[in-house]
Amino acid sequence: xxxxxxxxxxxxxxxxxxxxxxxxxxxxxxxxxxxxxxxxxxxxxxxxxxxxxxxxxxxxxxxxxxxxxxxxxxxxxxxxxxxxxxxxxxxxxxxxxxxxxxxxxxxxxxxxxxxxxxxxxxxxxxxxxxxxxxxxxxxxxxxxxxxxxxxxxxxxxxxxxxxxxxxxxxxxxxxxxxxxxxxxxxxxxxxxxxxxxxxxxxxxxxxxxxxxxxxxxxxxxxxxxxxxxxxxxxxxxxxxxxxxxxxxxxxxxxxxxxxxxxxxxxxxxxxxxxxxxxxxxxxxxxxxxxxxxxxxxxxxxxxxxxxxxxxxxxxxxxxxxxxxxxxxxxxxxxxxxxxxxxxxxxxxxxxxxxxxxxxxxxxxxxxxxxxxxxxxxx
Amino acid sequence: xxxxxxxxxxxxxxxxxxxxxxxxxxxxxxxxxxxxxxxxxxxxxxxxxxxxxxxxxxxxxxxxxxxxxxxxxxxxxxxxxxxxxxxxxxxxxxxxxxxxxxxxxxxxxxxxxxxxxxxxxxxxxxxxxxxxxxxxxxxxxxxxxxxxxxxxxxxxxxxxxxxxxxxxxxxxxxxxxxxxxxxxxxxxxxxxxxxxxxxxxxxxxxxxxxxxxxxxxxxxxxxxxxxxxxxxxxxxxxxxxxxxxxxxxxxxxxxxxxxxxxx
Lengths: 378, 263
Ligand code: SF4
Ligand code: SF4
Ligand code: SF4
Known about the structure:
The structure holds two protein chains of two kinds. By secondary structure, chain A is an all-alpha fold. Chain A folds into two domains: 51-192; 195-328. Chain A contains 17 helices and no strands. By secondary structure, chain B is an alpha+beta fold. The longest helix of chain B has 19 residues, at 235-253. The termini of chain B are far apart. Helices cover 29% and strands 16% of the residues of chain B. Chain B has two domains: 2-224, Alpha-Beta Plaits; 233-262. At the A-B interface, helix 1, helix 2, helix 4, helix 7 and helix 10 of A face helix 2, helix 3, strand 6, helix 7 and helix 8 of B. One iron/sulfur cluster binds at residues 27-28, 31-32, 56-57, 78, 140-143, 153-155 of chain B.
């Protein structure tokens, strides 16, 4: 086991952290406003647009961005791809923090925050929302367990650590299944809205599409994170890992694109893509910027081998999936004179939640052996 | 009424008889103790412009020009009390329930405020108390309390030209069919709500095509909860097979290596 020394070369406070803390402060102020005056006063949501930025970003997109956790644990533990072991802990950490933030976002968003536990007690198993709440609760628990090893190493609780390590496989498998259900269920939300959601996005296979795109964006997030933390924590890049992730993303995007196009053709809606409507323009941007361009970039060996190229491609994938979740949510509500634009408080809370995520990540990496496992094994 | 209590109830709105007096809108407000909300002038008689948490039912005025004169169509809107409601299946805590008698009921104490019912309802009926700090969902109750006392809904009772009739679902459906049959020239051959979303307890008759009145025409004829159940019902099988497949792959790919790593 790795003997752990605290990271001495980086301190928690930096100019970046100060900015993040300020953003978090603004978000706290906005949240206070929301809890004092209610959703109507704090947001631009209305009876016409009951699901706004918070559901689109904090819940739908946030969960997708956290998909790297199950992608990497599956690669490392199930497929025994040892190469990715060094990024297993950071990926689990990101997923764990991501889910914590989704939970905070949900509690802020629901109209009765003090009743957030109701679905765990009052069962209504025909509701996708019920499934989603259970998936979030269970998977966050699994992620917490998956992330105990670095904490226990730090505390030197070897006994408990051994027990947890003994159960690695069942825990990892439970995590992969729960993620699968959760990512798909977010697409399944919209299955009940065939007359509302624009036909470019409405499809009976939305759950599967959400799942596939979550893999692409989850792996992209892991690349981005590896690149950024190598820079921030003055570590070496792992070129082999980043190249491998790029390849994985390219293949996933190809599968996704084929499924998307085949689905449009089967449903007879392909011509809608080019009908010049607002929705079709959003659709084209989503598919070109978020799927086709990064897929081509990452299929090029040279680009996959350059840090800059991988970084840009990964950012495009993130942007594409964000857009997909936003489009799916908003094209089931807006149109016909209905409009929605988030208030500054909605933006502030969303930005604050992201800042909180980065702060927690930084804290964890500095005070816990997140990267060290890898370094010890080298 | 007493002998009909077991059979599901329904209501039929004959739009050709509605005179746009808004009596139902007021009767509903006063029976259900709904407050007034500030409204805005829109240049149209429709007021408020849509249902809201204080307005369970209202008349929408659709303007059209006929022989160079302004004409109106009046449309009463309220919860359709679907037979297999999307809102009921969407709610994670079972705050919405379809009662055997027909009304779709809501228990505010359970509601967590996720607003999925609002997203799911194809008729955009549930409304939220956005202005409140502790909001709940609001919508037409089919006057379930009145009905359990043997009364008829407030809106039905008040309607001067008897544009709304109330009875068992069977009765009102038969009446709707009879009216179309006896007056095929007057009515369009469509009972709105008979098939929409798998059927609703409230039905409409009209003399002009429903699409010109702003009725939603693209609502599937099958019950909407079937669509999400198709995904939910697969969960047990998915979990089982994934667990097996993943364990198998993990076993095969890691064979003979665990001992080495333990050291
Ligand atoms: S009309 Fe909407 S709110 Fe009313 S029962 Fe049907 S789905 Fe529920
Ligand atoms: S807002 Fe309330 S009633 Fe509507 S689905 Fe959520 S918990 Fe159920
Ligand atoms: S049935 Fe009762 S609650 Fe519903 S619209 Fe009529 S008066 Fe209002």
